[in-house]
Amino acid sequence: MPSLGVLYMAACLEKEGIPVRVLPAHVMRWNISDIVRYCIDEKPDIFGITVTTENRLEAFDLARAIKQARPETWIVLGGPHCTTTAQDTLWHIPEVDIVVSGEAEITIVELARAIEAGGAAKDLRIIAGVSFRDEGQIVNTGLRTKIPDLNDIPLPGRHLDDMSLYNFKVEVPGKGLLPAANLMTSRGCPFDCNFCATPVNWGRKVRGVTPERALEEIELCMKDYDAQVIWFYDDTLNYNPKRLEKICDMIIERRLGIHWFCEVRVDALERKLFDKMVEAGLFHFGFGVESANQRVCREIIHKKATLAQANDVIDWANDAGITANPFFIFSHPTETWEEAEQTLKFAEGLKGRAQCS
Predict the structure, then answer these.
(1) Domain of 65?
(2) Residue 179 pLDDT grade (very low, low, confident, very high; cuts 50, 70, 90)
């Protein structure tokens, strides 16, 4: 599916009149040589690379290749991996010029302006959320304050990408494979599960767009990209039940007929809201159980949701004829084999009632 983070940054650059192109090399099936050839031909001033921990080695190889072929292009890295590894990256990968940490919609615009003006260290030092080298020393400008109101940034620049390349489809029971779009209406999660990076990347104070803004993006995806399925990428779509209820009401009132997937917390979900979600098009939802052992949940994971709550929500899903998708994790710190067996037994007991992950 398309990278929403890249598309948000592209939209912000476009809004400020800064030329930008999105290059989804993975779906274009480009290799490093193809990308290098593009850089030689197009001569970009800045080349940004999204880095996850899984793709970091490929990203570093790409940075090296571009810098060797076109030294004057600024290589800028960002993405989840960079939030806590900026200094280490600059220390070990000399071909990388700048690392951006945290939300980058504002940072990338300020960075483009600074590089356009010559990229002097004095100009880079006043940009929060970046790390770079100045006379051989690594400079970190400190954390960028998270965007307080997500309604202030433009919608992702899907028009700057070729959505047809993704062939993003989701199977809906009884409907087959349908064209889909991913969108994110909130950032952050108020909970503190020990295995989750969301509090580090997005924060525990959840920021969400208005229901009106959410519907604007849903309708845009339906109109411009023929989406019949929406994949909500929010960590916890029901973090604010009243907001979600309003979104559902608007989908129902406008008779959008959209099918959608989301992830929820079962300890923040009531039957009345669940039924409205189904009426609005929910056909599949995920939620974390993680472990069936109380000690692991309470002392290790810090999860307060109960197995009873999970079972209730699974029953609701079966009543409604939609798919409940509980998530499980094994090998928690200090987890014993006997405790893991409890989880296995619980998951096996859901056969025919839920789709376990």
Answers:
(1) 4-140
(2) very high
Alpha helices in 50-120 (DSSP H): 56-69, 86-92, 105-116
Please report, for the domain that includes residue 68, its CATH number: 3.40.50.280
Whether the predicted pLDDT of 245 surpasses 90: yes
Coarse DSSP helix, strand, coil percentages of the chain, rounded to the nearest 5 percent: 45, 20, 40
* CA 265-267-268 angle, 5° bins: 70
Which token pair is 325? Answer: 């998708």
Closest Cα partner for 62 from 136, 51, 83? 51
Whether 336 and 195 share a structural domain: yes
Quote the CA–CA distance of 310 and 347 in Å, as a whole number.
Answer: 11
287, 327 Cβ separation under 8 angstroms: yes
Give tens-digit pLDDT for 258-270.
999 999 999 999 9
The mean pLDDT value for 223-234 works out to 97
